[in-house]
């Protein structure tokens, strides 16, 4: 029976002279509309009965702290200071939980950045922020050689890499492809001694330095963010602990420093 091809039944559309009314309403559409209408009708009837039976002298103490919108809807106003101690503790626990999740997220990002950068590169970057006097002594035979001495020629490296203490690549090494953070920065043919080849080398290393500088800056910002989040966690935890039971006294109450954090000591309670 189900294998035989049957005539396809199409629903009747809206007649042309009634097209301005939109789609033709079917029975299922009418049922939904009727149910919604009767639901609202019942609600109005119920409200009318409540209004008819209302006591004009009715009073609740809750009305003192309530406000009305349009003279009908009562909205209870509850200032934050009216929250109970237990409710405040729950809110602070939620805040601390959110801060811990943000802290873990920042630490994971820091680990990713540190994996992309070598320890020597990070040490070198820290030395740039707090520069130290580094010496590399080169001995020459006479004064003429001293006057004509060129560090670029001696180390056989571009000017941009002369000041490096490590990973000072030579011009021969620069001919090989350089890959950093998944990007192909440099791929040169055999050095033909032309000016274009040298420019390409310098351009590639400038791009490499910019990428590294960007990552170092992001790493520094994320480390600062971790310190701020840890400080916030400590402050929130202290507020939560102060609301707990037990006798406590502030240790550094006589301190002259305004920015110093308060330190509290709880009285030891013998556990039964």
TrEMBL record:
Organism, scientific name: Vannella robusta
Biased composition (Basic and acidic residues): 239-253
Taxonomic placement: Eukaryota, Amoebozoa, Discosea, Flabellinia, Vannellidae
Residue ranges, annotated region (Disordered): 1-20, 239-263
Any single Gene Ontology cellular-component annotation: small-subunit processome
Family: Belongs to the UTP11 family.
Alphabetical keyword list: Nucleus, rRNA processing
Primary residence: nucleus
InterPro entries: SSU_processome_Utp11
GO biological process: rRNA processing
Highest taxon listed in the record's lineage: Eukaryota
Spans traversing the lipid bilayer: none
Protein's recorded name: U3 small nucleolar RNA-associated protein 11
Subcellular location: Nucleus, Nucleolus
